[in-house]
Amino acid sequence: MTASYTYTDAQYQHDTTFNGKRPAEVPRNMASLWADYTFHETALSGLTVGAGARYVGSTVSYYKNDTSTGKKDDSFNVAGYALMDATVKYDLARFGLPGSSIGVNVNNLFDREYVSSCYSEYACYWGAERQVVATATFRF
């Protein structure tokens, strides 16, 4: 099992416009948790299954071009998000291939739609869709 947490208290120190404000696209909180289990001496020997979660807290961004409403340089919040990942891997040693394995990793398991970041009111980016990656490792 692996767990991590990060707290970032970033702010501009020497800026005439943003002094004392949080930088854009910098989450205050981030966390992750991952657990996996490998079966030994059972019918499932060599099988590893794992799952985990990643959390990225909310961020801020700043209006750049909104001079008509007076919001230029005002901040707005970008929601945080949590994603689940999973893996299945099989060690091929029992088939005479020590150090070899096959596996599948899935990022964003539930295919959640989320905004990963915004640089300004007109430059927001969607996060990555579900990604499935198959791997095969062979050592001779």
From TrEMBL:
Pfam families associated with the record: TonB_dep_Rec_b-barrel
UniProt keyword annotation of Transport present: yes
Key word Ion transport present: yes
Ranges where the TonB-dependent receptor-like beta-barrel domain occurs: 3-109
Record GO terms (molecular function): siderophore uptake transmembrane transporter activity
Topological relation to the membrane, as annotated: Multi-pass membrane protein
Annotated PANTHER family: FERRICHROME IRON RECEPTOR-RELATED, FERRICHROME OUTER MEMBRANE TRANSPORTER_PHAGE RECEPTOR
UniProt protein name: Ferrichrome outer membrane transporter
